[in-house]
Amino acid sequence: MCGILAVFGCTDNSQAKRSRIIELSRRLRHRGPDWSGLHCYEDCYLAHQRLAIVDPASGDQPLYNQDKTVVVTVNGEIYNHKELRAQLKSHTFRTGSDCEVIAHLYEEHGEDFVDMLDGMFSFVLLDTRDKSFIAARDAIGITPLYIGWGLDGMSDCFISAKRYLEDVLS
């Protein structure tokens, strides 16, 4: 299982806060020792600790749509990714990752695409064009996804390991 961490509306955008988010993401390293990734956009952070199963060579996360305006960090596996890719003929994929379809499906179908996914997953998607985001998990909840709010009442946090939630929000 991978480890994901997303923080939105972070009023403190200092280097110290960025370092804190990186440190907390590293605490999830045991969930994904193969790759660490971080995407920062204004007051939004998406961090990923990857356990490489599908496409270990090029599936590093966070993943993006073609023009990198949609960013996604995923814990899980999309079982029907090949069928979904085949439906997205006008899209260019840059990895062989099963999870890259999420960004492209969002472009095609908006938030309704979640029902098209067959698999075990939790993910957080950021659309930088309007600074909206989606957090979702599979219907059964096979992979964990926790949410919390900062002490300021503004920042939202999504994480795949509950015990770290309090640390990132403090």
Describe this structure in words.
The chain is of the alpha+beta class. It has a single domain, classed as Aminohydrolase, N-terminal nucleophile (Ntn) domain (Glutamine Phosphoribosylpyrophosphate, subunit 1, domain 1). It contains four helices and nine strands. The strands form two sheets. It has a five-stranded antiparallel beta sheet with strand order 2-3-1-9-8. Strands 4-5-6-7 form a four-stranded antiparallel beta sheet. It is globular and about 45 Å long. The model has no long low-confidence stretch (mean pLDDT 82).
CATH superfamily: Aminohydrolase, N-terminal nucleophile (Ntn) domain
What is the general shape?
globular
Described by strand count, sense and barrel closure, the largest sheet is: 5 strands, antiparallel
Q: Which regions contain 5 or more consecutive residues with pLDDT less than 50?
A: none
> Could you name the CATH class?
Alpha Beta
Compressed to H and E, one letter per element, the order equals EHEEEEHHEEEEH
Beta-strand fraction estimate: 25-35%
How are strands sequenced across the largest beta sheet? 2-3-1-9-8
End-to-end separation: 25 Å
Structural class: alpha+beta
Write the SSE topology:
Layout lengths: L2 E6 L6 H12 L8 E7 L2 E7 L12 E2 L5 E9 L2 H7 L13 H9 L9 E9 L4 E6 L8 E4 L6 E4 L5 H5 L1
Antiparallel strand pairs: 1-3, 1-9, 2-3, 4-5, 5-6, 6-7, 8-9
